[in-house]
Design brief:
Layout: H1 3-13, E1 23-26, H2 30-39, E2 48-51, H3 54-62, E3 67-68, H4 70-76, E4 82-85, E5 89-90, E6 96-97, H5 104-112, E7 117-122, E8 135-139, H6 144-153, E9 157-160, E10 171-176, H7 183-191, E11 196-199, E12 201-202, E13 209-214, E14 217-220
Parallel strand pairs: 1-2, 1-4, 2-3, 4-7, 7-13
Antiparallel strand pairs: 5-6, 6-12, 8-10, 8-11, 9-10, 13-14
The structure holds ribose-5-phosphate.
């Protein structure tokens, strides 16, 4: 089974968590794209979606799936029923790193507004410690050098994502070389640096359920 076939299988398995008549939070990335394609078949059953990026909104709209802003959605309901998204890495505690596509901030906001986060991954994303995948940090441009200095103090090697601007008009600094043994502590520490919008550790907004595709089938963790 190819990695793309595994992504498709896990994306389709996530449909089980989509409840009729609810608003669904939708993530960003290649796995989330496959979920969007599968969700299109349920577009008449759900009340709508909230997208975690402009790219996701465009793909949903291309399928004719209704997209609401988060603010409009939360005027209708207290919370979204479910948030479904991929990840770059996950650990045994269902802590995640995300943001390989640069959508981390909106993803974290939509996840926080949802009752349940179902993370859809293939088995290549499973790690003992987060950090082998460079950790993205979204930063207001003025704080670029400040974040570089602080990341080096943590033992990381920060690299500006050249030519990339987030949907929020900010920059991303990818921090290489971290071995993250305390995901929640590092998430909080990085977010306490002025100018940081958020970082790609999802510990506070970790997954409630990880659906992991393997060549033998989809496993629920
Ligand atoms: O910003 C991007 C997101 O956090 C993605 O969910 C993450 O990078 C995983 O993407 P993919 O499913 O393409 O591996």
């Amino acid at each position: 089974m190819t990695q793309d076939e595994m992504k498709k299988a896990v994306a389709e398995a996530a449909l089980e968590y989509v409840k009729s008549g609810t608003i669904v939070g939708v993530g960003t990335g290649s796995t989330a794209n496959m979920f969007i394609d599968a969700l299109a078949g349920m577009k008449d059953d759900i009340l709508g979606t909230v997208a975690s990026s402009e790219a996701t909104a465009s793909r949903l709209e291309g399928h004719g799936v209704p997209v609401l802003s988060l603010n409009d959605a939360l005027k209708q309901v207290d919370s979204l029923s479910v948030y479904i998204d991929g990840a770059d890495e996950f650990d045994a505690g269902r802590n995640l790193t995300k943001g390989g596509g640069g959508a981390l901030t909106r993803e974290k906001i939509v996840a926080a507004a949802s009752d349940q986060f179902i993370c859809i991954v293939d088995q290549t994303k499973q790690v003992k410690h987060l950090g082998a995948y460079p950790l993205p940090v979204e930063v207001i441009p003025m704080a670029e050098e400040l974040l570089m200095i602080e990341a080096k103090k943590l033992g990381g090697s920060p690299i500006l994502r050249e030519g990339f601007t987030t949907d929020n008009g900010n920059i991303i600094i990818d921090v290489h070389g971290l071995v993250i043994t305390d995901p929640r502590g590092l998430e909080d520490h990085l977010n306490s640096i002025p100018g940081v919008v958020t970082n790609g550790i999802f510990s506070h907004q970790g997954a409630d359920i990880v659906l992991m595709a393997t060549p033998e089938g989809v496993v629920t963790l």
